[in-house]
Every structure is written in C-alpha cells, then in structure tokens.
Design goal:
heterodimer; A: 116 residues; mainly beta; 11 strands; B: mainly beta; six-stranded mixed sheet; four-stranded antiparallel sheet; globular
C-alpha cells in the first residue's frame, strides 16, 4: 500500500512570510495527525482530524497556525506569519481503524521548514 | 496527563555489543506502545508495537521489547548492534486506538567500531 505523502520536502522562508504544507494519508485512514518536531526533540501533536472534523487542536498556536481537511482525505497545514521558532520538521501521520487487529500509525517523510 | 519518559538521551555502544534503550510511560489504564527509529533527514519508521497479548514483542532488524505493566516500562533491546543501527529512537504511547501518539524525547544510539 502507498504510504503517507507529504510535500514539499524542504522549505526555506523569511520570518513573517506564510507557508503551507500538504499531506495525503493512507487510503481509507479516517484519522490524520500533524506533528511538529523541533531539532533534538520528540514529535509534538499539533492537530488531529477524524474524517473532516477536528478532534484535538489544543496545542495548535491558533494565532498563526491553521489546518484543514475539507473532504476528509488530504490535509493542509498553514503558518502565517512564520516566526524563527517555527523552524522544525512537520510530520503528517494517519492511523487505521479502531477495530483493526494490526492497528498502527504511519508517518510521512516530513517537511523540513527553515525560517530565516 | 499521559507522558512518556526515555531515560537515556544518548547511548554509545560498540558494534556487536548488546543494547537496551529504556522507556517508561505514565498511565493507569491499558495503553498501546510503540518504538520508532528515525535516521537523519528521514521520517519515522516503526520498529515494533505492543497492542495486547504476549508481553515480548519482536520487531524488525532484530529488535525486541518487553511490556512490563507493573513497572510501566517498555524497554527496547537488541542482542548485537551494527553500525547501521546508529539513529534516533523514539518511544511512544497511545491511550487507545484513534487517539494521538505521545512521544518521548528520544534516545540517540551511537554505534562505533
């Protein structure tokens, strides 16, 4: 099966600019997650979607970050305006259904954002 | 709140030596537990997972982990490491299916000859 697709792979922007990341999860996976991984740290959840609805966005800095999953399939994460501390790898993941005996999470390769 | 603690930030080891990467989680209920490996400039690759059943879980590349409910631990082991095992290792937990993974801070495994 195809994995979780993310683009772009790398992005360099100046502070105060805007940027968007795209994610296409594994086909049939209803739950999609966006994580932020700062260098030297573990991934931190930003937002979780179930189909096209938000389940948890408690750690999303809503003054500058936004995300959507309009048709319940692919998703976009946006930052506007970007700050230097937003430099990180942004990982997208999806998970299989609750009744799956082989339940698990699959991660994309990530987008490495550098804000200068 | 649920948390995952990786007890060692860095583990240096010689090639062909055994290694254990330690992970503790905080939860009073059943959890799903995972170990991921991350090579430089790459995404997270699943090594193994514990959902239920046997407490000894075998994964890819010769790794295994043991779920210990009384000690709330899920330590990762390999009897003989290779240079190619040099990477960042993350322990993660989820309260149940459909909830987000909570990650530890990671352990850097450095294998030298």
């Amino acid at each position: 099966e195809a994995g979780v697709a993310q683009s772009p792979r790398y992005k360099i922007i100046e502070k105060r600019q805007s940027v968007a990341f795209w994610c296409n999860p594994i086909s049939g996976h209803a739950t999609l997650y966006w994580y932020q991984q700062i260098l030297g740290q573990g991934p931190k959840l930003l937002i979780q979607f179930q189909n096209n609805g938000v389940v948890d966005d408690s750690q999303l800095p809503k003054d500058r970050f936004s995300a959507e999953r309009l048709k319940g399939v692919d998703s976009t994460l946006k930052i506007q305006p970007a700050k230097l501390e937003d430099s990180a790898v942004y990982l997208c993941a999806s998970s299989s259904e609750r009744g799956d005996t082989n339940y698990g999470y699959t991660f994309g390769s990530g987008t490495r954002l550098t804000v200068v | 709140a649920q948390s995952v603690t990786q007890l060692d930030s860095q583990v240096p080891v010689f090639e062909e030596a055994p290694v254990e990467l330690r992970c503790n989680y905080s939860s009073s209920v059943s959890v799903y537990l995972f170990w991921y490996v991350q090579y430089p400039n790459q995404g997270l690759q699943l090594l193994l997972k514990y959902l239920s059943g046997s407490t000894l879980v075998k994964g890819i590349n010769g790794f295994e982990a043991e779920f210990n409910k009384s000690q709330t631990s899920f330590h990762l082991r390999k009897p003989s490491v290779h240079i190619s095992d040099t990477a960042e290792y993350f322990c993660a937990a989820a309260l149940q299916a459909g909830t987000a993974l909570i990650f530890g801070k990671g352990t850097t495994l450095s294998v030298s000859s």
